[in-house]
Amino acid sequence: MTYIVDENCIKCKTMDCVEVCPVDCFYEGENTLVIHPDECIDCGVCEPECPVDAIHPDSDDGMEKWVEMNRKYSEKNQAFVGFGKKFKLAKNNFNLSKNGSLKEAANNLYKIMRKIKKRNFKSIAIAQIPNIGLGRAINDRLIKASNK
Ligand code: SF4
Ligand code: SF4
């Protein structure tokens, strides 16, 4: 058995679910977070943390399509690189600077690119960094990496 995330998660601003997961099995999906069905250990601690009732056990009625959706996006093997407080926590998300600092982002850039390379992601999606000052150089580097 696994827990899964449904469409209620779209545009959620809280990630309390991710914080409590003991096995780190939340991934960034298309518009929602998703749970990897093979990594979830069925502990259920995330379910009550979700403020919009988006997390359910797959044993609930009508969950088949959501299990498929969670599997599809958790296995897509795509890394997301972002910036700032609003960028979601997830196993495949890499935040250059939670504080929204371009200096910190520049300092973290190569460390994060190394982590992404090590984990062999198929592709990288980028939430654009403010394209000013140091941000221009960071965006250039990220765009080159995402095209490889
Ligand atoms: S708390 Fe609920 S709505 Fe928010 S990210 Fe987690 S699953 Fe989605
Ligand atoms: S049920 Fe447990 S293991 Fe599964 S996603 Fe929720 S917190 Fe993680």
Summarize the structure.
The protein is α/β, with parallel strands linked by helices and 148 residues long.
The proportion of residues in beta strands is 15-25%
Gross CATH architecture of the largest domain: 2-Layer Sandwich
Global structural class: alpha/beta
The helix fraction, in percent, is: 25-40%
Instruction: Report the top-level CATH class of the largest domain.
Output: Alpha Beta
Bound molecules: iron/sulfur cluster
Q: Would you identify the regions where 5 or more consecutive residues have pLDDT less than 50? A: none
Report mean pLDDT, rounded to a whole number: 92
User: Taking strands numbered 1, 2, ... along the chain, how are they ordered across the largest sheet?
Assistant: 6-5-7
Tell me the span between the first and last alpha carbons.
37 Å
Number of strands: 7
Number of domains: 2
* Secondary-structure element pattern, one letter each: EHEEEHEEHEH
Biggest sheet details = 3 strands, parallel
Radius of gyration, taken over Cα atoms and rounded to an integer in Å: 16 Å
Number of helices: 4
**Dominant shape:** elongated
In the CATH scheme, what's the topology name of the largest domain? Alpha-Beta Plaits
Structure description:
Strand 2 and strand 3 (33-35) form a beta hairpin. The chain has 148 residues and is α/β, with parallel strands linked by helices. It is elongated and about 50 Å long. Strands 6-5-7 form a three-stranded parallel sheet. The chain has a two-stranded antiparallel ribbon with strand order 1-4. The protein is built from four helices and seven strands; from the N terminus they run E-H-E-E-E-H-E-E-H-E-H. It folds into two domains: 3-73, Alpha-Beta Plaits (2-Layer Sandwich), CATH 3.30.70.20; 78-146, Threonylcarbamoyl-AMP synthase, C-terminal domain (Rossmann fold, 3-Layer(aba) Sandwich). The chain has helices spanning 16-20, 64-74, 102-118, 134-146, and strands at 3-5, 26-28, 33-35, 55-57, 78-82, 93-95, 123-126. 28% of the residues are buried. Residues 3, 20-21, 23, 25, 35, 40-46 line the site of one iron/sulfur cluster. One iron/sulfur cluster is lined by residues 5, 9, 12, 14-17, 33, 49-50, 52, 54-55.
